[in-house]
Amino acid sequence: MGKTIHFISGLPRSGSTLLSAILGQNPRFHAGMSGPMGGAFNTLLGELSGRNEYSMFITDEQRRRMLMGLFDNYYGPEYGAEVVFDTNRAWCSKMHQLKDLFPKGKVIACVRHVSWIIDSIEQLVRKNAFQPSSIFNYQPGGTVYSRAEGLANGDGLVGYSYNALKEAFYGEDTANLMLLRYETLVNDPARALAAVYAFIGEPAYQHDYANVSYQAEEFDQRAGTPGLHTVHRQVTPRERKSVLPPDVFRRFENDMFWLDPALNPRNVVVV
């Protein structure tokens, strides 16, 4: 490809859209909310597997070229940026493939206190009380307890991405992985972005953290979750009380493995 490809992944509601909005201020960069490439990558990988009756005619090198072609064709001439950041929670589960396809590509995994992730989603559900959300397959029933359980299970929005994050964090392909804490991004965006630029090996850029802009209103409306990708104009922490029952909040309060150096055997960069 003529472009440099990096990846944004990690946990939902942890700053990936905010990070993309900030990076997008750099005219050399393209970054946005989660897109279709992760799903397309998985689908093509499956279609090129043994379930295809003609798979005996497909070599690994052909698979590799076809997967590379996805990025080459999707990020075509209409994307004038030299550096592309593709966002998808699936990328943390594809570290080995990404390392092979993009040896210089970096994966920035956004992370956040898991209890506050659950809280953030619950707050959105309550704010849009008359619009069932795609997060829960547009089902209007349930309680805060069933929603938290659904989010946290292995196939849930949070549980899947959390397990993928751990797979990346404890896997063998961590040299190109960095974890960026939501708390760092909103409290000290300049330090967070300086770390990102150093990690990807790009020259520093003067970002405007008081004038951040990003719009995905049509997508959010269709998903039944207006505000899902809302980015506040000024990057600043916003303190508030949790809407979760105390027992639900406590359930996830010890899940931040990335904060304990003893649980970081491969010395993954955590900012």
UniProtKB/TrEMBL annotation:
Alphabetized Pfam families for the sequence: Sulfotransfer_3
Gene3D superfamilies documented for this protein: P-loop containing nucleotide triphosphate hydrolases
Domain of life: Bacteria
InterPro entries referenced in this protein's UniProt entry, alphabetically: P-loop_NTPase
The protein, known as: Sulfotransferase
Organism: Dyella acidiphila
